[in-house]
Amino acid sequence: MFFGLVFLSFQSYGQDQQEKKVIQLSGIILNADSTDAVPGVNIYVPKKGRGTVSGRFGYFSMPVLEGDSVVFTFIGLKKQSFKIPEKVENDRISLILTMEVDEIALAEIEVMPYPTEEEFKKAVIAMNVVDPMSISRANMSPEMLLRWAESMPASGGENFRYFQEGQMIQNQDLYGPRPLRILDPFAWSQFIRSIKRGDLKSK
After folding, report:
1. What CATH architecture does domain 22-99 belong to?
2. C-alpha distances in angstroms, 156 versus 147, 152, 161, 165?
């Protein structure tokens, strides 16, 4: 009798499942305070192992059975559910679902680096504070500035100037060898005038 009852219960359950019609549920999910679509919403039927996710434009489509309860969840939005009617004439249901923002107010939490206020005071009193002016003087020393200047990359203006100088040297090399200043008579005349003026005398 026990096995007979179990067999009849399974048979009646299978008949109920067979009698339920498959419905194609589809729709668009929007934000309640605007007309923006909500992508990535989890849409599933609990305890049935069926589900999907809304696409880029908030659209979704999935098969369900009559009487199923479909749940819509998304982080930061309130969870919603939709009950499929028991008797549906058509084999399709279309939805336009709006989801509201789920505001959660958390209690204030005071984070302390020490378990008690007394230990915090002792740590502050025992702290060795470095003078900020000494740090700034060390960073502005000539040796430190020279080291930074040597390791600093060239600016955009310097790179452009070096490029222009290279282009000019290449253009000069195209039309012959470079002139030697030691053989330039105008350079020698300027050098003699500077000697007569006493520009080379040590002051």
Report:
1. Sandwich (2.60)
2. 20, 12, 9, 14
